Amino acid sequence: MKTKILITGGAGYIGSHTAVALSDAGFDPIVIDNYSNSDKSALQGIKNILNADIIHYEGDCNDAALMDKIFTENDIAGVIHFAAYKAVGESTAQPLKYYQNNVGSLMVLLDVMQRHQVKDLVFSSSCTVYGQPEVNPVEESTPRKAAESPYGNTKKICEDILVDYVKSNATVRVVALRYFNPIGAHATSEIGELPLGVPNNLVPFVTQTGVGLREQLTVYGDDYNTSDGTCVRDYIHVVDLAEAHVKSIQYLEDKPDTFYDLFNLGTGNGNTVLEVVKAFEKVSGKALNYKIGPRRPGDVEQVWANTDKAEKVLGWKSRMTLEDALRDSWNWQLKLSNQQ
Ligand code: WQD
């Protein structure tokens, strides 16, 4: 019998890629998703890749009765908790929606895990907790900054909840993963990023501009203190990111019943926005229509990861390059636009 892992938000961008990675590693992924920021078609994409159905539930992680049902119906060994709202701008306009969903759902999950004696949890956090680090690459020991947005604050608060819960000697083994900038798609183009509406994030906006869905990319500022004036980020392939979640579940298997650890998940390299644009033009063979516009409020100038800890402790390191990820994002966009 395969080890069952519940993936909350498992129809989402990182969740769907993690479901594939877990199955490839011999686990049995179970998905719960309310499709508020994902599409049920991702489940078909996962099925096409795995040639197998996966158990899935439609619903909200804040729904304690549904969560209880899932844990009652399945012998769950561990949970990977992705389900959360993640739009930085939206969180500023609707903070209570973000606190209720992102923090509330973690509290419901921790309670149902305790009642069903499930102790392994991998939590989806974000490099946004670092704000603008004084020094790059940023290490896990780098002090977190005051959040730039309610979204970022929910990630900090959830990390604090988990630390305090572990300190209370609860029977829970936690790995928190601070993602840098996830990009790319599965090589099969069966799953990938599905931004609803106008993409906030750079790479989906780039690929949508490439296929003509968007008229022109605006580069938010070229007057930063960087090599070409545009912001620096650590863009990590979503498949590399997914594999780190498998490593994290395996890492917990022999840990004490009360345990907490956290890891940066990035490539260890920083790239500017214009470097991303140039790499996209190279892999797609298309000139991208873009202009330089004003800075976007809340953007940090530069942040990229020190990934030594994940390499040494998890035995994980990203393998794919920026161009690999942009190629996979482009192929995914072409498939979405039926232009392959
Ligand atoms: C990257 C760079 C923009 C769009 C956010 C969250 C983070 C995580 C990933 C959830 C920046 C520039 C972007 C555009 C641009 N989200 N840009 N034109 O802001 O680093 O991180 O998304 O987990 O928590 O904070 O990612 O892709 O929005 O921006 O010039 O149309 O691209 O200014 O420098 P960001 P991003």
Could you explain the architecture of this structure?
Helix 1 (about 15-25) packs parallel to helix 2, helix 7 packs across helix 11 and helix 9 (about 275-285) crosses helix 11. The model has no long low-confidence stretch (mean pLDDT about 95). The chain starts with a strand and ends with a helix. The strands form four sheets. It has a seven-stranded parallel β-sheet with strand order 3-2-1-4-5-6-11, with helices on both faces. The protein has a two-stranded parallel ribbon with strand order 7-10. Strands 8-13 form a two-stranded parallel sheet. The chain has eleven helices and 13 strands. It has about 350 residues and is of the alpha/beta class. It is globular and about 55 Å long. The protein has a domain at about 5-185 and about 235-265: Rossmann fold (3-Layer(aba) Sandwich). The site of UDP-4-deoxy-4-formamido-beta-L-arabinopyranose (WQD) has 19 residues, from helix 7 and strand 8.
Q: Main beta sheet: strand number and arrangement? A: 7 strands, parallel
The beta-strand count equals 13
Compute the separation of the termini in Å.
Answer: 39 Å
Provide the gyration radius in Å: 19 Å
User: What ligands are attached or bound here?
Assistant: UDP-4-deoxy-4-formamido-beta-L-arabinopyranose
Number of helices: 11
CATH architecture of the domain at 4-183 and 236-266: 3-Layer(aba) Sandwich
Residue fraction in strands: 15-25%
Would you summarize the structure shown here?
This protein is α/β, with parallel strands linked by helices and 340 residues long.
